[in-house]
Amino acid sequence: MTTQHTSHGLLSRLRAVPGIRAVSSYRREWLVKDLVAGVVLTTLLVPQGMAYAELAGLPTITGLYTTVLCLLGYAVCGPSRILVLGPDSSLGPMIAATVLPLVAADGDPDRAVALASMLALMVAAIMIVASVAKLGFIADLISKPTMIGYMNGLALTILIGQLPKLLGFKVEADNLIGECVGFVQKLADGAAVPAAAAVGCCGIVLILVLQRFLPKVPAVLAMVVLAIAAATVFDLGEHDVSLVGELPKGFPPFTIPHVRFADLAPLFGGALGIALVSLADTISNASAFAARTGQEVRGNQEMAGVGVANLAAGLFQGFPVSTSGSRTAVAERAGARSQLTGVVGAALIVLMLVLAPGLFRNLPQPALAAVVITASLSLADVPGAVRLWRQRRTEFLLCFAAFVGVALLGVLPGIAIAVALSVLNVFRRAWWPYDTLLGRVQGLEGYHDVRSYPQAGQLPGLVIYRFDAPLIFANAKAFRDEIRRLAGADPRPSWIVIAAEPMTDVDTTAADVLEELDETLNADHIHLVFAELKDPVRRKIERYELTRTIDPRHFFPTVEAAVAAFRLRTGAEWTPSATAEQPGRLDRPDRPGPDAVPPPPADEQ
């Protein structure tokens, strides 16, 4: 019995591994489609892997090592049937910004590879730990506006950084402004190589034209083949055009990267930023393709799959990877049905490295720059930024600040700025939420925002106030000050009813403020009344012992019930609103209501 139980437990654990589960449920009719899709995918994997390795400041061959291992690692542990991982244009500058400052002055490529591999292992550890701890929500730390700004800044950084390579020369600079100045100076000095510029510019045009008008044609492959043909026929190597050259034959051995202890802290900082961007990309791409294929998104398993892919890459001289929307789309269009597509792509790359390492020796470096530049253009979302400007100015400012942070301070500070701005924006909304008075509108049920309906009726002696946020330490004093202002109006109200449905929490700081506020109001014979307070929040108020000062009879299930109780007690009748004549914070014209009848202006909050 013990042996059978142990065997059954082992089988259950093995079936929990996504790759083994996929093999057990594989359908024979998928095989041909997966094989064909794997061949098609390889035509994109090879040039992009080489190009993104150089974007990261690493030898070209490391991009192919990374591609092979991450595809195999994700095939074993990744939950998605068709998601494709690999070197990514959004991660390349982050890797370079982390690794290159740590490389010795002579630019030792072996040291750069070791640092990049350790970076991949750190990213793997972060992703796996986050998966175990179920921290997928961390991807939400970057809001869409700040992500748009970050990606636009990243696209500009990549574009400016690749322009010298596109034109056949190099620029040594530490920031975007230095790169721009150096590029213009070298261009004015005649450093551009005409043959290199022709290859690079024609490559960009060819990729963009094919992607626009012939999307089924593998644009990158077509450009690469033509560039190699041009380099061979016109002997571009003799015309000062840099070529990729012969790739090392074979495959790297299992390698534990050796780095100095002093390098671990800066590497870990870079790994955190890379893991965050990779996580956001992964959840976004997984959600998009799962919706199209009918799969369920498993965020924590996706993190584990990406973590294992990075682990595999880091142990074989690779660098950090992420999911790729473009490569996944190519695989999907080619008919991919499972991760066998990626395995086929990895196997073909290995065969190329073993049997034909010289296949890309005549590939011009400007052609790789063209691949990176066209990829950077796909990162940019200028229409998204314009839409933010038209729809919500404050979110555009967040977008612009993230853009400037990346462009002027660098990609790693840029991601930190993007996260900080997103978190601060959430805090700002909690600190200064929307609030308003409510009144009765003839012909409409319920009680409505007096900004949207200035004609809303009021009951003499009664104020209905809505505060659209949890009541916490950050906004409790603002809430108190507004209630005091309402209590000091002429004539004074006898009841202030809080329409508390939006209040999802009351913390201890806010509870102390409420207790002091209620005691002050009671001294002036004004009652603080709550309506529509959620049961969990009501239980917290009782646990805080606030019902010692706030009369338990002043909690009502609905605003209607509170109003009915007030009318029964006072006999008050409805009158037209006088809100427009009341001074104070509630009457600012720049804070329109959510149900306004015309729509709120673009710069609301």
Automatic annotation (TrEMBL):
Q: What are the record keywords, sorted? A: Membrane, Transmembrane, Transmembrane helix
Region annotation (Disordered) maps to: 574-605
Keyword ATP-binding (UniProt): no
User: Where along the chain is composition biased (Basic and acidic residues)?
Assistant: 584-593
What SUPFAM superfamilies does the database record attribute to this sequence?
SpoIIaa-like
Q: Could you tell me the superkingdom of the organism this chain comes from?
A: Bacteria
Q: Where does this one sit in the cell? A: Membrane
Q: Where is the STAS domain?
A: 452-566
InterPro entries linked to this entry: SLC26A/SulP_dom, SLC26A/SulP_fam, STAS_dom, STAS_dom_sf
Under Gene3D superfamilies, the record lists: STAS domain (3.30.750.24)
The annotated topology with respect to the bilayer is: Multi-pass membrane protein
Pfam families from the entry? Answer: STAS (PF01740), Sulfate_transp (PF00916)
**Transmembrane parts of this sequence:** 30-50, 56-75, 82-103, 115-137, 149-171, 191-210, 217-234, 264-283, 340-360, 366-389, 396-421
Q: Where is the composition biased (Pro residues)?
A: 595-605
| NCBIfam families in the cross-refs | sulP (TIGR00815)
Q: What is this protein called?
A: SulP family inorganic anion transporter
Origin species: Streptomyces lutosisoli
